[in-house]
Amino acid sequence: MLNEEITILKEIDDKEIAYDKLDTLGRLMSKKSDNWPNFLLWRNHKFINSLGSEAHCIIEIRELIAAMKVINKSLFLTYLYLLIYILLSSGVILYNKWVLSPKYFNFPFPITLTMIHMGFSGAVAFLLVRVFKVVAPVKMTFEIYATCVIPISAFFASSLWFGNTAYLHISVAFIQMLKALMPVATLIMAVLCGTDKLRWDVFLNMLLVSVGVVISSYGEIHFNVVGTLYQCTGIFAEALRLVLTQVLLQKKGLTLNPITSLYYIAPCSFAFLFVPWYFLEKTGMEVSQIQFNFWIFFSNAVCALALNFSIFLVIGRTGAVTIRVAGVLKDWILIALSTVIFPESAITGLNIIGYAIALCGVVMYNYIKVKDVKASQLPPDSLPERMTKDWRIEKKSSNLFAPDDNTNDNDTSGKVSSMSDADEEVPLMASSRLSHIGRSQLSSRDA
């Protein structure tokens, strides 16, 4: 039916009939998707009505039809990439838990597992940058490396280390609930670093999140202090990394895509992880009879790397709100799956109530911050001009490896969310289409 409507509309010469058909087509499109450009399409005939020129009207109508085709294709790819991201992110977390858990694969060496991920990602990034030349390396001076890459790598390695160690002590479901503290931690770090100011509305939301996490923790059947401390430490390390990345990248004007980010960050993170590995895990691996299955660790590392690229695809096609919604959906799916795959990960009613309270605070917080970001970035264009710009930009967004030279992340806490549960998120990633709300929700401590 949709294709027939488009064909009919293209052939219409009568302006008034064209308006009616455009209105019908737009309403049909808006029922197929709640994507906002589709809603604008059927309202835009009022704008066309004011143009006066019949020939100009027909041109505008045909441009809108072309825009709808682009939007439909883009919408399909967006949902596909989001689905891939959700599956990979959930899969990597569950896979890591299975590998590390003494009850299953029994490889209780989280630092080693993280080093495998970092080493594999760094090697693949090296091949893509230096051998196959998929992307060009950036101009990296010793000063930038010492003042930006090294400190960011240190906190990135720390967040992965502590976050993965938590899998040895607490369940996946409870870890996901604790991760609701991510915006609280990031706001605290942003205020301490002087990149943001505390506001009462944000403070109340953060208080609601904290209360929800406390209730959820109280309802945890297998509460473990050590595991909780590890996870919370990893959360604050990740929050500090996000704020530090914001400050240092803004100061140095450094822009890296995900591949070059891994190229510079992964080897440095590997080096930082080597120190705790030598003192904490090396001896244990020598004396214990561990099973090292090459295909298990290789597939695990491939999944972690694939997650990186899925993050890249999602960031290239969506905004912070869409990513946030996908993150909430993934959280609930992951909590439900973890209770099925790992029977010991039982959740209680108090767990659910506490997490729901925390999630309400997170959603309210993100709503405030997304609104602030949109208000600061919204151009003073007319409605039709804005819509035309948006769909033309969407047409160009398929070039995922194109550098983004217009990035300017000016709002730190306003660009943060609680979804910090993917795996090895690319630690230096600049994109004008992704606020820190999207970036931190795609960030990782689950190597």
Automatic annotation (TrEMBL):
Q: Does the keyword Membrane apply?
A: yes
The residues that cross the membrane are 75-95, 107-132, 144-162, 168-190, 202-221, 261-280, 292-314, 348-368
Q: Where is the composition biased (Polar residues)?
A: 409-420
Report how it sits in the membrane: Multi-pass membrane protein
Q: Which domain of life is it from?
A: Eukaryota
Keyword annotations of the record: Membrane, Transmembrane, Transmembrane helix
**What InterPro entries does the annotation carry?**
Sugar_P_trans_dom (IPR004853), TPT_transporter (IPR050186)
Per its UniProt record, what Pfam families does this chain match?
TPT
The compartments listed are: Membrane
Region (Disordered), start-end ranges: 394-425
Q: Supply one GO CC term from the record.
A: membrane
Q: Which residues form the Sugar phosphate transporter domain?
A: 80-366
Signal peptide position in this chain? none
* UniProt cross-references to PANTHER family, sorted A to Z: SOLUTE CARRIER FAMILY 35
Name the UniProt record assigns to this protein? Sugar phosphate transporter domain-containing protein
- The species this protein was found in: Mikania micrantha
